């Protein structure tokens, strides 16, 4: 798990293209805000395709080769993306970046389940997220400095760190033990995967969970699309200061989350932690409407960070606990696809609302979307409890 987390740290330390993409497209490529929204949505469309294919491949060939090749190929696509000039080519290579890269998501979750025990899922997920957010702290800081010099350097740095993480996994991370099956056992195993009993698409509670997660993620992902634009357009912050503000999110999660999860994981139910996290996200957006100062931006980011720490680890834990071993790849793919769909919806919704109604209406709209998610998770806990008592 520590080696897997180290690979995640290497990868995420280069996370700077997505953070600055909306600013890059509008300020340096001179794309319109709706065009920037379409390009940002291509991150989500590629992610949706990558997660779906990645989940299928995990169940067929295992997570290990997917971890390696998704990182290497997405790194190459990032470097290519930095050299694209026209709107169609930028959109197409943006799609390729996440189509290659987000096959990593279901493979990563399946690898956590393979390398750790079930009772340690929350802490293992927290360790994985610790590495991810520590990298996300480093990435925007370096990215903000590189962007002031030359935006093309962001694509090279992001691409090379992706490939470095893939090579690290290949040379350092132990391969999972291979379980030998007879031909008959392999056929039976595949039949289980394809059966109604083990399909996530037939699991009613899981489908509702995925839907409510998507609503939360749509609101949260404004951290990559509308929030950087808001900081630039309304507060006139430079790329360096935007990088510092966004790095505060990663730094907070990296420093606090793993310790927090260790102490609270058995004190409350998963859904109560998730609901509290969603409620805090609503608060983080609503406080931007009547109040305006740099301290409000910092306070809002602090609350958003706590929201992430409470909601996301327990969302992942629930998804992993619900997943049968024989079809974990498909369950994890569907969970990853909910975040991918949110990556599509988030920039499209935000750019359209900003263009026609402004930022304040956007924050109210996002709070409403998150409120539906909050109510949904509260209902789902009751539904799950009633199903358990019936069984």
Description:
- The structure is a single chain.
- This protein has 391 residues and is mostly helical.
- It has one domain (2-170, 200-390): MFS general substrate transporter like domains (Growth Hormone, Chain: A, Up-down Bundle), CATH 1.20.1250.
- The chain has 16 helices and no strands.
- α14 runs antiparallel to α15.
- The longest helix is centred in the last third of the chain and has 32 residues, at 359-390.
- It is globular, with a radius of gyration of 20 Å.
- The two termini are 35 Å apart.
Fold topology:
Blueprint (H helix, E strand, L loop, with lengths): L1 H11 L4 H12 L4 H29 L1 H19 L5 H15 L2 H12 L5 H29 L2 H21 L10 H12 L9 H17 L5 H8 L5 H26 L5 H17 L7 H29 L5 H29 L2 H32 L1
Helix pairs in contact: 1-7, 1-8, 2-3, 2-11, 3-4, 3-5, 3-6, 3-15, 4-5, 4-6, 4-8, 6-15, 7-8, 7-12, 7-14, 10-15, 10-16, 12-14, 13-14, 13-16, 14-15
Instruction: Kindly provide the radius of gyration, computed on alpha-carbon positions and rounded to a whole number of angstroms.
Output: 20 Å
User: What are the secondary-structure elements, in order, as H or E?
Assistant: HHHHHHHHHHHHHHHH
CATH topology category name: Growth Hormone, Chain: A
CATH superfamily: MFS general substrate transporter like domains
Catalogue the unreliable spans: none
Straight-line distance between termini: 35 Å
Major sheet size, sense and barrel closure? none
Kindly estimate the percentage of residues that lie in beta strands according to DSSP: under 5%
Total strands: 0
The SS-based structural class is mainly alpha
CATH class: Mainly Alpha
Tally of individual domains: 1
Average pLDDT for all residues = 83
Quaternary class: single chain
Percent helix, as a range, is over 70%
DSSP summary: helix tally: 16
Q: Quick one: overall form?
A: globular
Tell me what the CATH architecture is. Answer: Up-down Bundle
